[in-house]
Each structure stands twice: as structure tokens, then as C-alpha cells.
Amino acid sequence: MLEKPILRVLAGEDIWPPPLWLMRQAGRYLPEYRAIKDSSGGFIARCMNPDLATEITLQPIRRFGMDAAILFSDILILPWALGQDVAFKDGVGPILAPIRSAAGIDALSRARVADATAPVLETITRLTKALPAACTLIGFCGSPFTVACYMVEGGGSRDFAETRSMAYTDPALFARLMDVLTTATTDYLSAQIQAGAEAVMLFDTWAGMLSPLQFRQHVIAPTAAIVAALNARHPGVPVIGFPRLAGMYAGMYAERTGVDCVALDTGTDPARAAAAVPDSVAVQGNLDPIALIAGGSAMRAEISSILDALRGRPHIFNLGHGILPQTPPEHVADLVQCVRSR
Q1: Number of domains composing the chain
Q2: What's the gap between Cα 90 and its chain centre?
Q3: What distances in angstroms separate CA 282 from CA 136, 286, 298, one per listed residue?
Q4: What are the φ/ψ torsions at residue 338 (nearest 5 degrees)?
Q5: Beta-carbon contacts of residue 279 (< 8 Å; ≥ 6 apart)
Q6: For residue 29, what is the domain's CATH number?
Q7: Burial 189-213 (b: 16+ CB within 10 A, else e)
Q8: Which residues have CB under 8 Å from 19's CB, separation 6+?
Q9: CA 194 from chain center: how many Å?
Q10: What is the pTM of this model?
Q11: What is the DSSP letter of 243?
Q12: How many C-beta neighbours within 10 Å does residue 128 have?
């Protein structure tokens, strides 16, 4: 349905002003989300409750009229569905039972994923009926390398040294884990598309931590395999890739993975990225989430700079990373008005 602005951009059309949505647009900065959070159990329970997950996904659409809704879920739902112990602790973040051996990988089961994620797919089906006609529904997964980082490390980290060390010192073991994740990610995204997702996004949050060789092996190669498989199964369904911190690799990523759109992180110069990324590939981004917290003239200057740099090519306005919990909702409303009034 190419009358939807986001899908038009993902098909290669330049729209002015650009359509917009925001990473983590549903979440803790919204008082209506906090009201649900305080009475709904843990984070995974919310993701697995179609009533709640549908409502949470719709909240920013009702409030701000975004051009896309992204499924309320998390990149670590997939390792949880594969059988790894995953928990989310307030103030700490995700906690996982680390996988650092062949036995740990052997214990993962792709056969579990379909049943475990059935509530997520039900949420997508409900959203297809509840969203405004012009609003695109985006499904997503974490990219294999980033998900592997959490699975091996056992949670967040400043440098994911255990994961990167495994990739260097036991490449066969790391390759096994990446193969499991590449296949499971492809199947899970395919299921999301079958349930009604009109586009999907791959979040590779820690892609930029790798050397050029490792980036090609563990970011570009699995992403290209996922995109090729999805294109074969679901022709015409676009894929957005987010190789965060990739910097100068953005052009190579766009050319070699086959994604329809590259999402830029905060630190990427949009003008240089626009020159490096093929004209046929859309770009998404990349306002600093801290600028959104600041609001006012500082935020408007950043917005203008991004819009000026990317005008004339397919562009979806977004952040360079997710909305932070301390963001005033009125600043989000100002952002939407600022972009749409150009």
C-alpha cells in the first residue's frame, strides 16, 4: 500500500517534508505507559500480553500521529524464545544466563520460537486493524551480532569483551551461535511479516565496536543473508538496517546488505552518509536524543541541520538512538510540528 508515506520512502521516493517516527516512541517517557507499567508485571509479561502490547504500541500514534508504529517488544525476546534465561531488572537492564560453550548453544531450540512468540504475532495482527490507514506497521529484531553480545556477555557491557574475544579466539563456536541467530532471526521476522508487519527493522546496536574485518564477517554477512531470505519469501517488504556506531561503514553496509534503508546513529554526519549511501537506498535519522530532551531552539537547529543535509533524497526523520525516559512528551510534539511545518 504505497500511499503510506513511510512505505513510499522505503520504495525510493523523496517526500518533503519527510515522514517520521521515533525509535522507542512507545515507552517510559509517556505517562500513559507508566500507568500501565506500574500495574502489569514485568517487561516480558507486557511484551507477551497482546492487549497491553497493542495498547502501548498505539499510545504514541494517538498522541503524536507518527507515520509509523513500531511493535512494542524487545530485541532480547528472541534469545528468551530460544530458551535462554532472560530477565529485565529496573535500573540494571537485561540479565541473561551467559552462553560461552557448545553446550550452551546446543541448549537453544529454534523449535520453541513459534510457540513462544505467538502472543507477539497476535499483537501484530491486532495492530493491523487498529492503526490509522496511513500509518505503517514496523516489526523488528536485533541483528545477530548485537543479540549475540547480550547472550554471551550475560547483559549489557561497555565493551562486550567476552563476545569479541570469543569471535577471535573460538571463531567456530561463535560462528555456530551466529548461524543459529541468523536463521532464527530470519524466521521470526518472516513470521512478523506474515502476521501483518509492512516493513521490518534490524537493530545492530553494537555493530560499530568491530574491526573492519569483523564488521564484514559479523554484521554485513548475516544481515545480507537475512535480507536475501526475506526478499525471497516476501518480495516487496522493505528492510531497515541500523548499524549503530558504524560511521564510515554506512555506505558499505548499504551496498552489501541489500537493505532498503540505512538508519543513521547520532554521531553520523548525515551529509557524508547521504553521499556514501546509494541514491536508491533511503536513510533514516538522526536527531540526538539528548537534543530532544533539551528541546527549544537547540533542538530546532539540530532538526534543521538534518533536514537540510538530507533534502532531495528518500529520508525518514527519526532519532539517532531511542527516546530516553526523561524526555518531556511536549518536546516530542514540538519535534513533530517542526518537521511537518518545513
Answers
A1: 1
A2: 21
A3: 16, 13, 26
A4: -65, -45
A5: 313
A6: 3.20.20.210
A7: bbbbbebbbbbbbbbbbbbbbbeee
A8: 5, 6, 8, 9, 67, 68, 316, 317
A9: 18
A10: 0.97
A11: E
A12: 12
What does the pLDDT average to over 261-266?
Answer: 97
Query: Strand, coil or helix: what is 37?
Result: helix
CB 144, CB 174: distance < 8 Å: no
Q: Which of 80, 28, 13 is nearest to 260 (CA)?
A: 13
In the structure grid, which three cell numbers stand for residue 59, read together? 499510545
Specify the residue for cell string 507515520: 67
Could you give the 3-state DSSP secondary structure of residue 184? helix
DSSP β-bridge partners for residue 69: 137
Q: What is the pLDDT of residues 306-335, one digit of tens each?
A: 999 999 999 999 999 999 999 999 999 999
Mean pLDDT of the chain: 96
Residues found in the chain: 342
Q: Are 18 and 10 in contact (CB under 8 A)?
A: no
Residue 7: pLDDT band (50, 70, 90) is: very high
Q: Which domain covers residue 40, as residue numbers? A: 5-340
Residue 313 phi, psi dihedral angles, 5° rounding: -140, 160
Helix axes 329-340, 50-64, angle to 10 degrees: 50
Residue 2: per-residue pLDDT: 61
Place of cell 533539551: 294
H or E element in which residue 304 lies: helix 296-310
Rounded mean pLDDT of 63-73?
98
Proportion of the chain in helix, strand, coil states, percent, rounded to 5: 55, 15, 35
